[in-house]
Specification:
452 residues, alpha/beta, Nucleotidyltransferase, domain 5, 2 domains, 16 helices, 23 strands, 22% strand, globular, binds D-xylulose
């Protein structure tokens, strides 16, 4: 049986066709927003903004990305008419605001990189304090829907009044694929500061405080095991069979948990992408005492823990280019030329406002003369800085003997060796590089069982 997994990430959309019997990907396609959809003026997947805290994108770009990736899959000869179900995921926390006629009531959607809601986070903190973390799995967070909706409702009350639906990008894309008003799935829905994780229902009190009428503007909630939706007629254009089951899209991290084969507790995953994340299935509900980490839903049932580091691959790429190095030098040579520990030289990249720990976008912070140092010293300093910070901030999740490493940078021997050393764990690169899209395809296969 063939299933389709679609991953709508920060910088582009990917799709994989997965053969469940053979256990392998048989076709794939990708779209990069910067290169393939230049009309949206978003080279890195968001609209450039002088204020580093403001990170937004035109939601129409994501729909275009979805359609283009399907066209590429079809035109590349993928057996579209044999696909039996669709699943997928989206970057987490991005919100899409719709008016009654389906048009966008907010032209620019805030994405997970947005941290412009400091005042709203303070208001949520002042009102709910510890209770927010206990109920929703996270303290008040800038990029989450509660703070984002609060800011929008305050700044543009007229547009807020016209808004009849607040979707996550995941539920919005599911709506597009199914031609319905799709539900929010619990894995991704947990990243909004609005869902009570004990009851898996919207928390009426928090919704009421965040923005007038928010509760009525939220889609219903889809729990693991609930019946899937069906593909809309218009996707016949891409050779797909209308009516096949569509598993509601989840977040990219929950999808990766499934795609990495880590949905049952025991091992952790490090995903090295636009954001670096560290996550694991959660045997018992626990929150981060330091307030940086999150609890999301595990699409396979139960929960997952997650810590997110914003300065991931874009920061590594910037350092690489500043050093005039190619990827082989960055991934390997620099580590052969320098000793483990780098003689105490360490650096942290803060090109974007950092989430873990909270830090303004101040550029490189190093304990040595950054500009005078050799490229290999700078590269090891950045990688060791990133991984050391990750180790410190994820202790609350626990210790793991095995860590699966996924995402583009998982090919780096230097990064893998650093993870092994700092976590004292067996770090393994996964064969699959598109673990989120693969997770979507696996969730699609599961949807077929549920639909029976
Ligand atoms: C997780 C987070 C990021 C995005 C990246 O909380 O904000 O990992 O999901 O797409």
């Amino acid at each position: 049986m063939l299933t389709l997994g679609i991953d709508s990430s920060t910088q582009g959309t990917k799709a994989v066709v997965y053969d469940t019997a053979a256990g392998r990907v048989v076709a794939s396609a990708a779209v990069n927003y910067g290169k393939d959809l230049p009309e949206f003026g978003s080279p890195d997947g968001f609209l450039p903004n002088a204020d580093a805290r403001v990170r937004r994108a035109n939601p129409a770009m994501w729909v275009k990305g979805l359609e283009l990736v399907l066209a590429r899959l079809r035109d590349g000869g993928a057996p579209m008419d044999e696909i039996a179900a669709v699943g997928g995921d989206a970057q987490q926390h991005a919100t899409v605001y719709l008016a009654a006629d389906g048009s966008y009531s907010r032209a620019e959607s805030p994405i997970w990189m947005d941290s412009s809601t400091g005042d709203e986070v303070s208001a949520l903190d002042a009102r709910f304090g510890e209770a927010l973390r206990a109920r929703t799995g996270s303290p008040a967070i800038e990029r989450f829907a509660a703070a984002q909706a609060m800011k929008f409702a305050k700044e543009d009350p007229e547009a807020w009044a016209r808004t009849t639906r607040v979707h996550l990008l995941s539920s919005y894309l599911t709506s597009v694929l199914t031609g319905t008003d799709a539900p929010i799935e619990t894995g991704d829905g947990a990243g909004m500061n609005l869902m009570n994780l004990q009851t898996l229902a919207w928390d009426e009190e928090i919704c009421g405080f965040a923005a007038p009428g928010l509760l009525a503007k939220l889609p219903r909630i889809h729990k693991p095991g609930d019946a899937p939706l069906k593909l809309a007629e218009r996707f016949a254009e891409f050779g797909l069979r209308p009516g096949i089951p569509v598993a509601p899209f989840t977040g990219d991290n929950p999808a990766s948990l499934v795609g990495c084969g880590a949905a049952t507790p025991g091992c952790a995953v490090i995903s090295l992408g636009t954001s670096d994340t560290f996550f694991a299935a959660m045997p018992d509900f626990r929150t981060d005492p330091d307030g940086y980490g999150h609890v999301f839903g595990n699409p396979a049932g139960g929960f997952m823990s997650l810590s997110c580091f914003k300065n991931g691959s874009l920061a590594r790429d910037r350092v690489r280019r500043d050093c005039g190095a190619d990827w082989t030098f960055f991934d390997e040579t620099a580590f052969a030329l320098t000793p483990s520990g780098n003689g105490g030289k360490r650096a942290f990249p803060y090109f974007e406002t950092e989430l873990t720990p909270k830090h303004d976008a101040t550029g490189i912070e190093a304990n040595f003369d950054w500009n005078a140092a050799a490229p290999e010293v700078r590269i090891r300093a950045i990688v060791e800085g990133q991984i050391a910070n990750m180790r410190e901030r994820t202790r609350w999740i626990g210790d793991f003997k095995t860590i699966y490493v996924t995402g583009g940078a998982s090919r780096s021997k230097g990064i893998l060796a650093t993870i092994r050393e700092m976590f004292g764990a067996d770090a393994r690169t996964l064969e699959v590089s598109d673990s989120a899209a693969l997770g979507g395809a696996l969730l699609a296969a599961r949807a077929i069982e549920t639909a029976k």
